[in-house]
Amino acid sequence: MTLENVLWITLSAVLAIALAWFSYFHKSGKTPYQYLLASLRFLGLFSAFLLLAPLQFDKVTVNMEPHRLMLVLDNSVSVGRTASRQALEQTRDFFLQDSELPERFELQMYTFGSGVRESDTVDFSEKRTDIASTLKTLSNVSLNANSSVVLVTDGIQNQGRGWLPTGSGTITVFPVVVGDTTAYRDIRIDGLNCNRYAFLDNQYPLEILISYRGTEATTTVLTLYDNGKKVHSEQVRLPAGRSSERLSVLMSADKVGFHTLTAEVTSLENERNTKNNRQAAGIEVIDEKTRVNIVAARSHPDIGALTRAIESNEQRQVALITPQEVSTKASETDLWIFYQPDPGFRNAYTTIQQGSTPLLTLTGTLTNWNFLNAIQKTFRLEGAGPQEELLPELNASFAYFDARDWAVNGYPPVSGFLGEYQILQPHENLLGQRVRGISLDQPLMSLVKGSERREAVIFGEGLWKWRMHSFTQDGDFQKFDALFSKLWLFLGAGKANERLNLDYENLFDGQQAAVIRAQFFDEALRFDPSARLTLQLKDSTGSLLDSYPMALSKREYQADISSLSPGAYSFEVGVEDTDFRKSGQFRIQEFDLENQQVRSDPEALFAIAQASGGSLYYPSQLAQLKDSLMNSDRFRPVSRSQRNVVSLIDFRWLLIFIVTALGAEWIIRKYNGLY
Q: What is the pLDDT of residues 30-48, one digit of tens each?
């Protein structure tokens, strides 16, 4: 007890004695039951003063906490095989029917597959097994608790990562291995990896992961199929023991559409499990060449140089057309190049202003600037001066893309007009003008991020000289072509800011949830959480299936299609009350993940047991497991004391005592006629 508490108690006692003495000995004479009444008043007042005083006391509560024993049952399909099922049910019944274990432990029952839940009922319906996640969840639930886990499983994990507990706060795990632990020779395909898309007439890499378990070296034949057609075959030699091979094969994208790629290895003699000898992946071959139209009224070497630079990438194709052909090519053009426009381009400008296709304009000595200033609102030339040879000067602060490796020092000049050039929309200058060693504050090449389209302008003719200079310096055209490739990417990026984006897998094989995700952005390219997106499905015959409203989840919309039967599907995602639509296709593969491995994995479970301080057992050793649990001092009940600081106001009996003492005094006084 603190000194402060002693002082408050002493003061309360002195005040109570003083008031009782004043009431019954100082103020009045001798009365019946004088000492009894004075004592009752003293006790009542003393207790009341104690309640009013800021007194605090320590209250200690001691509880005996039994050790928590969690029996965790594997509810996956792989354990549903006859031998494994019987062993698991036998282990569960052993713990439920034992009379000694409940007296010593707090027994809790869980089942798990891809997740864990509290239950003692198993139906072996889980299609994925995540042992690591289960143990992490139970470890978090049992944080700072006196707990252990009896894990009844075959040890086959096909989801999540491996887990070995570390630190003193982790739970102790006692695995009980069920199923067949006999080691068999087995060859399997662990993975088939490829890109989601491939471009037509290109090659793409396909990665195949093959593993082998056996005491003797073996040879197998790997065969690849594209939509059921055999396209590749090779022999693979695998050494004895536990080995793996990573192979890479270049595949040809020779047909547009969805391709199901299948890898298969020949079975070993008397191989027990052949379901894991085959695996599939999906890839979509697309023809997305950038279609570039150069519009010119006359021939010029610059047009040839631009054509070669554009066609340096196979995914770009270029055509030379006249201004009169622009209206007929508008719907099939991804990039316009206008070379030295003149009044003959009037209808061409009228056509392109109705869309948002990016535009590169090249001017020169034959450009009609009066027409050009009047027909478009991106740039102007005020007070055109004489023709001049303009040397390029790289802008070191240019930030739209990295152009630092393009050294223009030594480049020959291009021909253009002197004058005051004005860029009327947000832009950056990649090149400036230099004349006779003097840097002019005028652009030579400008890149414009316009509100309607992206544009680029080159204020001079003679680009063919630059490309030839690049070859003279380096022996090839790569640096020149690479710079203009970045220019094409910049111009095309205006179309990349699409407001509706999709995210999905080409092939769903049962190893992950089948979900199609989408994002929709408003006009300021901010995520729009109020949009209503709908997924419309079609089967392989093109027949319409159900439509799915896509649910909002954080910063994306989702539609779960896991309930679809195996097969090929196409789909379209649309935003209600808008014209935004996007489509795609996918395949749901029939794939039994739980039957990819038939042998139990006691080695992995033994590692978990050792790391957590437990031991590995088999169903025939349940009695030994019980003895180790019952006889170990680690699993005895733990005495836990809880110390709380409480005030006297929390003691209800003290309030009852005050009422009783003062009430008894009042009754005695009334009974004897005292006032």
A: 677 777 777 877 887 777 7
Please state, in angstroms and as integers, the Cα–Cα distance from residue 219 to each residue in 16, 234, 244, 346, following that order.
101, 10, 13, 71
Res 536 pLDDT > 70: yes
pLDDT for res 415:
94
How many Å apart are CA 326 and CA 426, to the nearest integer?
Answer: 27
Distances (CA, A) of 360 to 335, 340, 490: 8, 11, 11
Average pLDDT over residues 217-227: 92
Report strand pairing: 515-520 vs 556-560. antiparallel
Q: Which residues lie below 8 Å from residue 266, measured CB to CB, with a gap of 6+?
A: 220, 221, 223, 277
Look-up of token digits 């001691």: 62
For residues 436 and 626, give the distance between their C-alpha atoms in angstroms, rounded to a whole number: 96
* 637 CB neighbour count, 10 Å cutoff: 14
Distance CA 174, CA 359 (A): 69
Distance between CA atoms of 480 and 474, rounded to whole angstroms?
10
Q: How many CA atoms lie within 13 A of 339 on its CB side?
A: 22
Which residue do the tokens 């027949």 mark? 543
pLDDT at 166 over 60: no
Residues of 647-665 as b/e, b for ≥16 C-beta within 10 angstroms? ebeeeeeeeeebeebbeeb
Burial class (CB in 10 A: 0-12, 13-18, 19+), 72: buried
Which distant-in-sequence residues (6+ apart) come within 8 Å of 518 by Cβ? Answer: 500, 501, 502, 503, 533, 550, 556, 557, 558, 573, 582
Which pLDDT tens digit goes with each residue over 314-331?
778 899 999 999 999 988
Question: How confident is residue 655, by pLDDT bands cut at 50, 70 and 90?
Answer: confident
Distances (CA, A) of 591 to 188, 208, 507, 511, 594: 14, 17, 11, 8, 9
pLDDT at 68 over 50: yes
Residue 130 has pLDDT above 80, yes or no: yes
**DSSP secondary structure, 541-556, as one string:** T--EEEEEEPEEETTE
Instruction: Identify whether the C-beta of residue 393 lies closer than 8 Å to the C-beta of residue 444.
Output: yes
Give φ, ψ of 483 to 5 degrees.
Answer: -65, -45
Nearest to 24 by CA among 14, 12, 36, 7: 36
